[in-house]
Specification:
The chain is of the alpha/beta class and 385 residues long. It has helices spanning 3-16, 82-95, 113-125, 142-150, 178-192, 209-223, 243-257, 268-281, 294-303, 321-334, 377-384, and strands spanning 52-53, 70-76, 101-108, 130-134, 154-157, 175-176, 197-202, 228-230, 262-265, 287-291, 312-315, 343-344, 348-351. The strands form three sheets. It has a six-stranded mixed β-sheet with strand order 8-7-9-10-11-13, with helices on both faces. It has a four-stranded parallel β-sheet with strand order 3-2-4-5, with helices on both faces. Strands 1-12-6 form a three-stranded parallel β-sheet, with no helix packed on it. Helix 7 packs across helix 8. The longest helix is centred in the middle third of the chain and has 15 residues, at 178-192.
Length: 385
């Protein structure tokens, strides 16, 4: 999408309504860097790093807009699924609230680490003031991010960590507590499995830091449950976060292992492909946990009566963390204080075994919609029309 089209899309979404933020909470924390105590970042920054909080702690962007003309960019390591598209829409909608943001740029590295490096270098050469980035390439991007920081660009990675030290190598790193996210879902999945059976953890693009963090949380839970066998002992199973690829991968796992009793996934939208693989194989559906997705919830209602072993749970897909990344980068660019949390605690928001947390299926929305994203129903309809 060209810049002018992106601005029109942002304005249209902004007109549809303000972002809707809903509370979420849990326990634990994880952030990039050495794990030092919270700090105020580098000597010339008033942005606090390393703090932990909940979604309700997010502030209004007007506190950080400033007055000078600013160019912002979202450098995406991979933009090919609905989660990334929704996150981009949230970023552009939030940026449209600052009248002094004169340009909103977007790059998609398409899962190619070298292209991600080139994209960031190109944005720096174009004179952007702020870069918010989902780092799919992990620490391979750190030297490029450090170089951009030295050039004066305010960079905030979110969800996918480049390593390094927040407040020094970049402004801050914003994410949910990734390991605890994996641990929470694995604990629920194993308990619902009855504490025994074969478990699989599905990740995204091979080698990405986010899926690895989730996997570490799953390992913690498995170690405490000797009756559970984790089938993928060498790391998360790569699915590229795409339903079609997930269906192929899960079909292969079914052929290889036969019985799979539980799955923890880091993308609910991709998980729907895996569910179809079980249907095609004529195998009982496993206990399945992921982050929320409209179709993931709707499929449970479709099969719950014919698949007695099939239960699901989700935590928020937390697309809304991109707004905090933008806030922190803007605050740094404008020399303004920002004490919003860096790490956000999540909890299970849908649980088919709990009558008070039944999965939410919105029939008026497309399959790819994410109800916890921070976009309203009308905004989601417009995005996917």
């Amino acid at each position: 999408m060209r810049h002018s089209t992106a601005l029109r899309a942002a304005a249209a979404l902004a007109a549809a309504g303000a972002l809707l933020l809903t509370p979420a909470c849990s326990t634990g924390s994880l952030s990039a860097g050495s794990g030092d105590e919270p700090s105020s970042g580098s000597s010339d920054s008033q942005v606090t790093t390393g703090t932990v909080g909940v979604q309700g702690d997010i502030q209004d962007i007007s506190n950080f807009c400033g007055d000078k003309d600013i160019t912002v960019a979202l450098a995406d390591g991979f933009g090919g699924n609905s989660w990334r598209k929704i996150t981009r829409a949230i970023f552009e909608t939030e940026a449209a609230k600052c009248p002094n943001i004169t340009k909103v740029l977007y790059t998609d590295a398409q899962g190619d680490t070298q292209k991600a490096i080139s994209d960031i270098n190109s944005l720096v050469a174009q004179g952007v003031d702020v870069i918010v980035t989902f780092v799919d390439g992990g620490e391979a991007l750190l030297p490029t991010i450090q170089k951009a920081t030295e050039a004066g660009v305010k960079i905030v990675p979110f969800v996918g960590s480049p390593g390094g030290t927040p407040g020094k190598d970049y402004v801050d790193f914003v994410s949910e507590d990734i390991t605890t996210y994996g641990r929470n879902l694995a604990d629920w999945t194993i308990a619902t499995m009855g504490g025994k059976g074969n478990l699989v953890m599905l990740g995204g693009i091979a080698g990405n830091s986010y899926s690895q963090g989730v996997y570490e949380g799953v390992l913690e839970a498995v170690k405490e449950n000797p009756g559970v066998t984790l089938l993928n002992t060498d790391g998360p199973v790569a699915t590229d976060w795409e339903p079609g690829k997930t269906q192929q991968v899960v079909a292969g796992l079914i052929t290889k292992y036969g019985d799979i009793n539980g799955i923890v996934a880091d993308y609910g939208g991709g998980s729907v492909g895996g569910i179809r693989a079980f249907e095609a194989a004529g195998k009982p559906f496993p206990v399945w946990s992921a982050n929320d997705s409209n179709e993931f919830a709707c499929l449970w209602y479709e099969y719950k009566d014919t698949q007695p072993t099939y239960q699901i749970a989700t935590e928020s897909s937390r697309n809304w963390v991109v707004t905090v990344a933008l806030h922190k980068a803007l605050a740094a660019a404008n020399g303004l204080p920002n004490d919003e949390p860096s790490t956000y605690n999540l909890e299970i928001i849908e649980d088919s075994t709990d009558s008070s947390k039944q999965p939410k299926c919105e029939s008026s929305l497309p399959a790819d919609a994410i109800l916890s994203s921070g976009l309203s129903v009308d905004q989601l309809k417009q995005l996917f029309q």
